[in-house]
Amino acid sequence: MGLKLFLVLGLFCVTSVLGFGVDPALRINVFDELTLGEGFDGVTQVQGFHSESRAFHFQGSSREVKAPEDVSARMLQKLRGRTEFTVLVTLKQEHLNSGVILSIHHSEQRFLELESSGQRSEVRLHYRTKGQQAHTEVFPYSLADGQWHKVSVAVSASHIILHVDCNRIYERVVEIPFMDIPDDAAFWLGQRNSAHGFFKNGTVQCETISCPSPQCPAGTTPAYVKGACCMECQLVCLFKKEELVEGAQKAVRDNSGRCQLSECRETAMHRVVMTTPCPELNCPESEQVNLTDRCCKVCRGHDFCAEGHDCVEHSDCINLEAGARCSCKDGFRPLRDDNAYCEDIDECAEGKHYCRENTVCVNTPGSFMCICHRGYIRIDDYSCTEHDECVSGLHSCDQNALCFNKVGGHSCSCKPGYTGNGTVCKAMCDGLCQNGGTCISPNNCICQQGFTGKRCETDIDECSDGFVECNDKAICVNLPGWYHCECRDGYHDNGLFSANGESCIDINECKMERNTCANDTVCFNLEGGYDCRCPHGRNCTGDCILDNKVKHNRQIWVLDNDRCSVCSCQTGQVMCRRMVCDCENPTADLFCCPECDPRLSSQCLHQNGLLTYGSGESWVENCQQCQCLQGQVDCWPLSCPPVDCEFTVVPEGECCARCIIDPCQADTIRNDITKTCTDEHGIQRFSGSSWVKHGTECTLCQCKNGHICCSVDPMCL
What we know:
Blueprint: E1 3-11, E2 27-28, H1 30-34, E3 43-47, E4 54-58, H2 69-79, E5 84-93, E6 98-106, E7 109-117, E8 122-128, E9 134-140, E10 148-156, E11 159-164, E12 167-173, E13 186-189, E14 220-223, E15 232-239, E16 242-245, E17 249-253, E18 259-265, E19 268-272, E20 288-289, E21 298-299, E22 315-319, E23 324-328, E24 332-334, E25 342-344, E26 359-364, E27 367-372, E28 377-378, E29 384-385, H3 389-392, E30 401-406, E31 409-414, E32 418-420, E33 425-427, E34 438-441, E35 444-446, E36 451-452, E37 458-459, E38 474-479, E39 482-487, E40 491-493, E41 504-506, E42 522-526, E43 529-533, E44 544-546, E45 549-551, E46 556-559, E47 562-570, E48 573-578, E49 604-605, E50 612-613, E51 618-621, E52 624-629, E53 632-637, E54 647-649, E55 658-659, E56 668-669, E57 677-678, E58 684-685, E59 690-692, E60 699-704, E61 707-712
Antiparallel strand pairs: 1-2, 1-4, 1-5, 3-4, 5-10, 6-7, 6-13, 7-8, 8-9, 10-11, 11-12, 14-15, 15-16, 17-18, 18-19, 20-21, 22-23, 24-25, 26-27, 28-29, 30-31, 32-33, 34-35, 36-37, 38-39, 40-41, 42-43, 44-45, 46-47, 47-48, 49-50, 51-52, 52-53, 54-55, 54-56, 57-58, 59-60, 60-61
């Protein structure tokens, strides 16, 4: 496994850029300068990115591709002191392969080094800053995928831009590189030196040291020692029943304020003679703080960290009122209980990242990055998409809307002060929409499911519009915003309450004595009804028995308790129907036919005070069926179909319950006392019981048939 490489080092200076190219005098072709074609062990010439280009294959670990001193001096002279330069390289790197692309260094000081790690999916740029500090800029990106890539690293003073395959991947502001390269610096290609940085498989694995609990003899105690990871047994001194380790100091003050400082040395406390007076403090006495490990007071807010600390890897020193402590940096966790050493949290491996569509999570020290898949562009820090339709103008957003690019397209949102769906945004209206509708522009409503009309005032009759097909034993019954299949006359539900009425079964009116056959006839049950049959050889009257009263065959009458219903006896069976209203007839009964009442006094006002209804008209308001009857509004709860399930919820904008699977979203549950929950204390809780979660004041938990559902009460916060 190895690396195929084509590399050009381009140096840019403001005064030497010609058009869109580079001054040839400042261009360095590394292959030509090193004359790789004349033979280096472990390097062979192969076909490059294009059929007519050349590349060199770097293999093994015995090679030494180092520029001769005169060649190195000539190349570095062009680079020395520059603040603007670009490294261009075309490479093909095998999977999990890692190594140095080029390195310019002197002794252990790396002035410019470009490295690609397939193990960590990173591109690293090493250099020295003007403050003579070593700096490494890490770009989470994988070049080691077995494909050719064109890579550009452009440095312009404090700006670094990384391009891969002509796509800008990163742009960062960094400390300015210090390119004052010594004359005897070395220039290596494909490796850092003769022993390190080769392109080959394998990587350094670091593991956390496991510290055993020290078994300390009498007179000693486990304590951390500077430079050691684990606790070691240290001699102790007893000071007022307190154990102090070697080197610890204690200050004791008497009533007059005089202070005596003692230090633990060789298991005994020794007096420390102060050779210098305490420094003068520039703060009032009320702001001066006594310390337990020194006699000299300090001002409140004193910088203890500046005096020196033991906070080492990825740990910051934090000043307290009377001392300092170590605290792990964001994105790191402690390796020791004193937080002096911390390790990186791999958010990607632990699932603690927010990377979304078309990205891959790459762990970085103390954080993570979401890298776009090849060919995708960034939407935000966590997601990528194929095209930015908002920038290109290929979107459908209204001029009063904001465009948001997203995966697979874009979305539109009306600006503040406007309302709509984003593609059409108009001024907000006064909220006249009914039945849960949403106003998106003047006199224009978006209706909830099941309603239509300019103001969502019309219920969609799913039954008459052919949206629903019920079983032949059931009839579709329209409800405001919904519907259900109800068993026809002569049928009843078997208790399963199927949605399309398949659970409807025949009622045996004869067996259940729910028929009106006279005594001289015999009741025969039929599918969905019954028949009154006359026995052979007998002459039957065809009369009916209703409420223990005889009604003669073909007799017509009005019900005593409902003057609006007309009934008749037809060969032993009673048939009833509502009175037919003829509003053209001036003698029409207005009680039974309120829709025929033309008087203004019989009209009703809607609850919002803006709409009027004639007598007999109906509407739905707040899950109630309302009707205007001769000037009076009568409302009653909507009739909802039965639901036979464990968990139900009434969706927003609807009135009837529906079955759901998630118990934590349910409004109502069918409690089963055999399904208990175990809380955080191990206490068994019956279904339906609730409790405040331990350690909180505002989190309320409830047991729902074996499921624990918790939520925070916002009014409690």
